[in-house]
Amino acid sequence: MSSPFPLYPTSINRWSSWAISNTFKISYTTKAKKAMGTHNLTVKQLYCCLLSSIFVIISFQASFSEAETHYHEFVIQAKPVRRLCRTRNTITVNGLFPGPTLEVRDGDTLVIKAINNARYNATLHWHGIRQLRNPWADGPDRVTQCPIQPGRSYTYHFTIENQEGTLWWHAHSRWLRATVYGALIIHPKLGSPFSFPVPMREIPILLGEWWDRNPMDVLRLADFTGAAPNVSDAYTINGQPGDLYRCSKQETVRFPVDPGETIRLRVINSGMNQELFFAVANHRLTVVAVDADCTMPFVTSFIMIAPGQTTDVLLTADQTPGLYYMAAHAYNSASAPFDNTTTTAILEYKSAPCNANNGKSSTPIFPQLPGFNDTNSAIAFTSSLRSPSKVNVPLQIDENLFFTVGLGLINCTNPNSPRCQGPNGTRFAASINNVSFVLPTRNSLMQAYYQGQPGVFTTDFPPVPPVKFDYTGNVSRGLWQPVKATKLYKLKFGARVQIVFQDTSIVTVEDHPMHLHGHHFAVVGSGFGNFNPQTDPAKFNLINPPYRNTIGNPPGGWVAIRFVADNPGIWLLHCHLDSHLNWGLAMAFLVENGVGKLQSVQPPPLDLPQC
């Protein structure tokens, strides 16, 4: 439920009463002084002054009263969910799959009590919310908090500050997010202008993955064997697989539209391990925002969207009335097994004719999606993204970081062991700069830092790879095994940071969607092959690059981002393919406090879970 109320109502009302009463005092004093000849204000001028003062006070108070505080209770619990002909106990929020949609305005506050009635530890992450000075509400397990244990609760309390658009929330503990997720929609403040024509309606489109078994068991098996986890059995749109899967046709999601109306699709890739192509048959899509940042509008027949990313598109129902499939299938950039099925929903014109023989609607028209391995189309889409106007991009860089991102293999002393079922008797791993990230067990990183607890992490994460090599060429097998460690990189408050993410060909090249918590960043450049620090920066877009919170590198290539470290705390950076995160493709930044309270981490809440 949502309970709005004005921020600081008592203090504002007292201030307005004081101002009005003192306006009358000023009026009385001025009249007395006029009799003495010291002032020459007329009664009319005083009256206008009084009305102006009251108007300013009311306007000031109204600006605060626009902000609301929304109270919610999220009960994490197992509920029976039937998909693909089978009913399974599935971890949900409030019994819903997908979970509840949160709708707020910029400036609003969310107070969400998470009650864990499931049998697993759990945390919740508000993906893309900056959480300024408030890492305690960010959510990643063992990074900014210890998990919420079964039978316990924790209240996430945070304010939306200068953000609007499409974001989402999800579990951030192991593989719970396979089914624990939902949309988080931030509307502009009342009276704020839109950057594009306001659509008649808007529809959240959550793309997901479904396993025909408990996802936590899928992860547990992979952890034991060291092999890659089994791929999903279906993709979903708003929780439903669609017409092309067994026992699913009756539940296919339908979106009725009126001919000529324009709708806003808020597309979210809440899947676990797969970038996706998405399209609507015979309809053009106008991209207007990504990751809750506006873009220069451009028209396309499809989008490519990675796990963690959001894309807002406008669709006009300008085709012959009928049925048209929305569809999504994999963009597979790696030499690895993947789920090659296709999920569908139906865009249904309200005036669509029925089949004369049986009274049923005709078969929907299917869209043309790029091929599974069509990297050219994927790169063409992401390369089209621009901010709508000039943006502030750091031009002088304080921290110039070069991060290799990719897979690796851990050698086993007994390659025939059931725990070494990766390639050639190894175990899969992943790393950044050859460091495979290990989550702490004794405490969360943020709690250990705030409490001054030693021995939980070190701050010697390497700014460049320990060994320079031909990253996308034929890499020596001696470089395939990373080092496991819990290393952080320290940043001063306000540092201007550039990171180049360089893919490697170790095991396979791949698009790694990298997500940075607590910040958003400008995507200033990308390319194939090895990054050249002498020539490639000259091609950077430092005028109107897109801003994002999650970005992938071209497979066998690199991508460069820039941001200002203006948010104190510990913030996770990781690949949003959850199999890679589990293997260690992550690190964390420790952004030091700046000067004063407004540049320092706020104290932790009293109910913060303990490990």
TrEMBL record:
Pfam family, one: Cu-oxidase_3
GO cellular component: apoplast
Location in the cell: Secreted, Extracellular space, Apoplast
Names of required cofactors: Cu cation
Gene Ontology biological process terms from the UniProt entry: lignin catabolic process
Ranges of residues in domain Plastocyanin-like: 77-189, 202-351, 460-593
One example GO MF annotation: copper ion binding
Domain of life: Eukaryota
EC code: 1.10.3.2
Catalytic activity from the UniProt record: 4 hydroquinone + O2 = 4 benzosemiquinone + 2 H2O
Alphabetical list of InterPro entries matching this protein: Cu-oxidase-like_N, Cu-oxidase_2nd, Cu-oxidase_C, Cu-oxidase_fam, Cu_oxidase_CS, Cu_oxidase_Cu_BS, CuRO_1_LCC, CuRO_2_LCC
Key words, A-Z: Apoplast, Copper, Glycoprotein, Lignin degradation, Metal-binding, Oxidoreductase, Repeat, Secreted
UniProt xrefs under PANTHER family: LACCASE-13, MULTI-COPPER OXIDASE
Similarity comment: family membership: Belongs to the multicopper oxidase family.
The protein's name: laccase
Organism field: Populus tomentosa (Chinese white poplar)
